[in-house]
User: Fold this.
Amino acid sequence: MKIVLDSTPLIYLNRAGLSWVFGEFETFIPRSVFEEVVLRGKEFYKKDALVAEKLVNDGKIVVEFPSVTVEARRILAELGEGELQAIALAKQKNAVAIIDDDVAKGFGEIFGVDVHGTFFLISLLVHNKKLSKAQAVKKIQEMIKLGWRVSVDKYLEFVELITKL
Assistant:
């Protein structure tokens, strides 16, 4: 399965010690996400920036320059550059975009991109027996403690879904 990551899933999965996840998929990030997570992250001495850089250097994550049409830029003007490029790259690669922002997800769906968030990725790992249910819930809780923002409702939906897998 091919996935394209936006910045937030890349940062928080790395912070929670789940960087190995990216080796489970054919993983891509757009150049703007690399710049935001790795280049800017290193300026602020962020450990997750070094982890992401190593994933790129080891070939676990491939950095690409997606082409974004003027029309797409106009329509998607309210999105950040990382989200915009992640949607464009996912469309070009016929990949699943992993984006946690609900507005960006909606725009991705309008453009015919299969868009999901971090919960989807973690659920897939549980389904594929790469993580136990308890490990998945613990990692999500760890991400929240590290600053990952998610509504209580979405968290509860995730826990309910995981228990049914």
About this structure: The beta strands are 2-5, 26-30, 61-64, 96-98, 114-116. The chain has nine helices and five strands. Residues 2-119 form a domain with the Rossmann fold fold (CATH 3.40.50.1010). The chain has one domain: 2-119.
